[in-house]
Specification:
There is one protein chain. The protein is of the alpha/beta class. It folds into 2 domains: about 1-125 and about 290-320, Quinone Oxidoreductase, Chain A, domain 1; about 130-265, Quinone Oxidoreductase, Chain A, domain 1 (Alpha-Beta Complex). The chain has 10 helices and 17 strands. Helix 3 packs across helix 4. It is globular, with a radius of gyration of 19 Å.
Length: about 325
């Protein structure tokens, strides 16, 4: 079967012929129709991820068919018994085990759920990893309350956009940041109240002037800008961070946190229960994940280049 593999660290992924998956007891084979890229795939390609094995089929997100039934794959594997934190056997589909950038994948039957009927395969493939991460960050960790004002940084990425869509569907006031004005405009078209470009000087002061303080801030970047985000948190507010694109956090004033009784919470991925709740929410509200572009499996190297450049608004999807 045709698949996209990590040939070597630092080199673009390669489309190759791979053996058919051989399911073990308790597994099913999903005939994939679409799969979606995540920043995780690019970081693996760049060697910025633990446990990398060359020759592995990449990809965490996938939608396809099992026994005539359209399904989604939950890429969060072996979470463990404690819903607060993943256990020692936890892993994410697509490294070190073979992932979804292929014509077929073998996966435990408990990892597949019915696909929301209003979605196409391409839209559904955009949902799993980003949707699960956003769900846990927003609802499990962030625990928004009635009339909370929410800020989501880096809108345009898959998780940030899903968090934006979830928060809007739940009735919250949402503001965003981005390094691109066009992405802010697109987020406002989805329903966000407004946003600022974090590449401008004193963007945090402009945002505070326009919106005030935020009860919940969801961030994926860290870095020097995190200290500015902390100036925007309201008393008893929460900052949830699910990524570290910009690296080590510097310039964070502890006074901003302890005097305001604020909390910083870390999160990644989520449990099978959270995945089921997320998919049910998407079905109830008929939410449609934002798809940036659709590429063929053979065009995967170009899709990776687009992801690495950060040009996308929404998910980059491979049509299998």
């Amino acid at each position: 079967m045709r698949a996209v593999i990590l040939e070597a660290i630092g080199k673009p992924p390669r489309v190759a012929d791979m053996p058919e998956p051989q399911p073990h007891t308790g597994q099913v084979v999903v005939e994939l129709k679409a799969a979606a890229l995540n920043h995780r795939d690019v970081w693996i390609m760049q060697g910025k991820y633990p446990g990398i094995r060359t020759g592995t089929i990449l990809g965490s997100d996938g939608a396809g068919i099992v026994d005539g039934r359209p399904v989604l794959i939950n890429p969060s594997l072996n979470w463990g018994d404690d819903p607060r934190v993943q256990g020692p056997d936890y892993e994410i589909l697509g490294m070190p085990r073979h992932g979804t950038f292929a014509e077929r994948v073998a996966i435990e039957s408990r990892q597949v759920v019915d696909m929301p009927g209003h979605l196409t395969f391409e839209q559904a493939a955009a949902l799993p990893l980003a949707g699960l991460t956003a769900w846990r960050a927003l609802f499990t960790k962030g625990q928004p309350r009635h009339n909370d004002r929410i800020l989501i940084s880096g809108v345009g990425g898959g998780v940030a956009l899903m968090a934006c869509q979830f928060a809007l569907a739940a009735g919250y006031e949402v503001w965003v940041t981005s390094g691109h004005d066009a992405k802010i405009e697109k987020a406002c078209a989805l329903g966000a109240r407004g946003g600022v470009n974090y590449r401008t000087d004193d963007w945090h002061k402009e945002l505070q002037k326009r919106a005030g303080h935020f009860d919940l801030i969801i961030d994926s970047a860290g870095g020097a800008g995190f200290g500015r985000l902390a100036t925007l948190v309201a008393p008893a507010g929460r900052i949830v961070i699910y990524g570290g694109t910009l690296g080590t956090i510097e310039g964070l004033s502890p006074q901003l946190l302890f005097w305001r009784q604020a909390t910083i919470l870390g999160t990644t991925m989520g449990t099978s229960q959270e995945f089921a709740a997320m998919v049910a929410f998407v079905g109830k509200h008929r939410l449609v994940p934002v798809v940036d572009s659709v590429w063929s499996l053979e065009e995967a190297p170009g899709a990776f280049e687009r992801m690495a450049r950060g040009e996308q608004f929404g998910k980059i999807v491979l049509k299998v």
